[in-house]
Amino acid sequence: IQIGRNVAKSGYTSAWAGDLADVGVFNRIIVPAEIATLSTLLPVRQAYWPLNQAVEDTSPEYGGGEDLRLSGGAQIYAPDLTADPGATEPLLGAGHLVLDGVDDYAATQAPIVDTVGSFTVSLRAQVTAVPEHSMVAISQAGVHASGFMVRATPTWWELVLPASDTNGAATVTYYDNRR
Q1: What is the DSSP string of 90-150?
Q2: Is there a contact between 17 and 127 (Cβ–Cβ < 8 Å)?
């Protein structure tokens, strides 16, 4: 999993500028009608990073799985609201990941979800300004192509899925223009 960038044949691209929190990956598709009842369903969560803390540039996975390594200056924003009541509240919970859109990212060592079958990825995202170019919030690399990408563009949100994990694979892009 790559949070805040995409891995392409040409290298790392589409850096995210903004904040991210509450990242989850599930083993099946979760449809909108289920979102309110996630706690009563039985999808198997593959990974969950609340992004509330980091120790030595590592933010732990909630269930003890693959941790995220923060790189390029990525940091967790976790204000002490008691000590500083004027501080900006985190996106969710006690903190969130802050990325500069240049070289910051967080990544796992290995893939988390099998993108051949059904899966769901969720996260809360906040852009710092309308993006001037595509910015990838989350992706997972395959051998030759990204298994998926969720990105913001100047116009809309996109989910990009390749037809296969091969060089030059055709992709299907789904759009959501609700900003």
Answers
A1: PSSTT-EEEEESSS-EEE-SS--S-TTS--EEEEEEEESS--SS-EEEEEEE-SSSEEEEE
A2: yes
Q: Which residues of 130-165 are buried (b: 16+ CB within 10 A; e: fewer)?
A: ebeebbbbbbbbbeebbbbbbbbbeeebbebbbeee
Nearest-CA neighbor of 5 among 53, 86, 71? 71
**Given the DSSP bridges, would you call strands 11-13 and 157-162 parallel, antiparallel or unpaired?**
unpaired
Q: How many residues does the chain have?
A: 179
Residue type, 65: G
Q: What is the pLDDT along the chain (179 residues), one digit of tens a residue?
A: 777 877 777 778 788 877 777 777 777 777 777 777 766 656 678 899 999 999 999 999 998 889 999 999 999 999 999 999 999 999 888 999 999 999 999 999 999 988 887 788 888 888 888 888 899 999 998 888 888 999 999 988 899 999 888 888 899 898 886 65
Strands 17-26 and 120-127: antiparallel
Tokens found for residue 150: 């969720």
Cα 4–71–57 angle (5° rounding)?
A: 120
Pairing of strands 58-59, 68-71: antiparallel
